[in-house]
User: Fold this.
Amino acid sequence: MWDYRVMVRTWPTGEKTYGIHEVYYSKGGKVKGWTVEEMGPHGDTMAELRKDLARMRKALSAPVLKYKGWRPRP
Assistant:
């Protein structure tokens, strides 16, 4: 299962940036991973684009997650 979530990333300079990421969950509902890069809305039709943007807007109401360094497993 996945959804969009806002994540805050703290850079080595101390600067913080916010972005929307796809976040993936375990069957128990715990966060198990996320996209490295922020996501932008997309769709093959205008209706799909609107639906994707609505899911992203919903992420603005959920608690912000902290982005932590992530590396794909070999």
